[in-house]
Amino acid sequence: MEENAVRFPLIGDPAPAFKAVTTNGEIHFPADFEGKWVILFSHPSDFTPVCTTEFMTFGSLADEFRAMNCELVGLSVDSLASHIAWLRAIETLTWKDKAHVKVRFPLIADIRMEVANKYGMMQPNFSTTAAVRAVFVIDPKGTVRTVLYYPGSLGRNFDEIKRILQGLQKADANACATPADWRPGDDVILPIPGTMEGAQKRIEHPGEGAYCLDWFLCFKKDV
């Protein structure tokens, strides 16, 4: 059982460091991205249907992520030549509202599976020759903040990936939390008081723009 154990960084861990060859040249991770958020993600294989729709989507959203101070970094265990040929093929395709998408973010060629193993992207019950669909959201300090894994048959929800980034940034900037189904502009949740006195004060005087359902569940209008 121990031989098949898959290890990956947990939320709050430092993102494992590595050097890798990509379609944009060599990168040193996470050092090259200091001060930026990063979405590091893996896909099972080049020239496959689900992965192609995902890269068309990632490529079309890259500028939106960059506007949020977030860079994209992709990975699979294919070769650099395979990556280049696949990304060139993607530029010729049209799907939904996405046409001739140019993927400009780096795509790691990890044929030795070194990076994939550092991040738990190689899972024997899925495949010994292909990475799972993994997503790691890493903050500007190089700390893992979110980990997602998808089965091979299920394409990622990009609205949710973007929402995760927006929610993390909101929580960091405003010392708050976000409720279920939160979207930018929705009310946020205030921290829970840590004392009996604090709980009573919160109920009596929740603060400007704030309201409470109970002492432990208080909201504030987003600003």
What's the helix and strand layout?
Layout: E1 18-22, E2 25-29, E3 37-42, H1 49-67, E4 70-76, H2 80-90, E5 94-95, E6 98-99, E7 107-109, H3 114-118, E8 133-138, E9 144-150, H4 158-174, E10 188-189, H5 196-204, E11 210-214, E12 217-220
Parallel strand pairs: 3-4, 4-7
Antiparallel strand pairs: 1-2, 3-8, 5-6, 8-9, 10-12, 11-12
Task: Describe this protein's structure.
By secondary structure, the protein is α+β, with helices and mostly antiparallel strands. It folds into 2 domains: 2-156, Glutaredoxin, CATH 3.40.30; 175-223, Antioxidant, Horf6, Chain A, domain2 (Antioxidant, Horf6, Chain A, domain 2, 2-Layer Sandwich). It is 27% helix and 24% strand. The strands form 4 sheets. A 5-stranded mixed sheet has the order 7-4-3-8-9, with helices on one face. Strands 10-12-11 form a 3-stranded antiparallel sheet, with no helix packed on it. The longest helix is centred in the first third of the chain and has 19 residues, at 49-67.
Features:
223 residues, alpha+beta, Glutaredoxin, Antioxidant, Horf6, Chain A, domain 2, 2 domains, five-stranded mixed beta sheet, three-stranded antiparallel beta sheet, 12 strands, 24% strand
